[in-house]
Automatic annotation (TrEMBL):
<dbReference type="InterPro" id="IPR003769">
    <property type="entry name" value="ClpS_core"/>
</dbReference>
<keyword id="KW-0645">Protease</keyword>
<dbReference type="GO" id="GO:0006508">
    <property type="term" value="P:proteolysis"/>
</dbReference>
<dbReference type="InterPro" id="IPR014719">
    <property type="entry name" value="Ribosomal_bL12_C/ClpS-like"/>
</dbReference>
<comment type="function">
    <text>Involved in the modulation of the specificity of the ClpAP-mediated ATP-dependent protein degradation.</text>
</comment>
<dbReference type="InterPro" id="IPR022935">
    <property type="entry name" value="ClpS"/>
</dbReference>
<feature type="domain" description="Adaptor protein ClpS core">
    <location>
        <begin position="16"/>
        <end position="92"/>
    </location>
</feature>
<dbReference type="GO" id="GO:0008233">
    <property type="term" value="F:peptidase activity"/>
</dbReference>
<dbReference type="Pfam" id="PF02617">
    <property type="entry name" value="ClpS"/>
</dbReference>
<protein>
    <recommendedName>
        <fullName>ATP-dependent Clp protease adapter protein ClpS</fullName>
    </recommendedName>
</protein>
<comment type="similarity">
    <text>Belongs to the ClpS family.</text>
</comment>
<comment type="subunit">
    <text>Binds to the N-terminal domain of the chaperone ClpA.</text>
</comment>
<dbReference type="GO" id="GO:0030163">
    <property type="term" value="P:protein catabolic process"/>
</dbReference>
<keyword id="KW-0378">Hydrolase</keyword>
């Protein structure tokens, strides 16, 4: 009899990077038109998408704008928040882990 070795290759499981939601938080001071402009400029949303996100945040207190890898989500949230701050508005976007 011959010795036969059976080798099986196992692929290491690569975990999918955790995704983060970029969330628009409502405030009572930033004009709606400005929020729409930020959504269109920073997140490249259409006019209709921007309007829906803004209205949802206005009525529910917050709205998910997009879901991205952590670094990208944090960068977009900071960029959009800074855009508002440059104009003197308390506009706030945050990045939170996807559930």
């Amino acid at each position: 009899m011959s010795d036969i070795e059976t080798k099986t290759k196992t692929k290491p499981k690569i975990a999918r990077p955790r995704r983060y939601m970029v969330i628009l938080l409502n405030d009572d001071y930033t004009p709606r038109e400005f929020v729409i402009r930020v959504l269109k400029t920073v997140f490249k949303l259409s006019e209709d998408q921007s309007l829906r996100v803004m209205i949802t945040a206005h009525t529910k207190g917050k709205c998910v704008v997009t879901v991205l890898p952590k670094d990208a989500a944090e960068t977009k949230a900071k960029e959009a928040t800074d855009f508002g701050a440059q104009e003197g508005y308390p506009l706030l976007f945050v990045a939170e882990p996807e559930e």
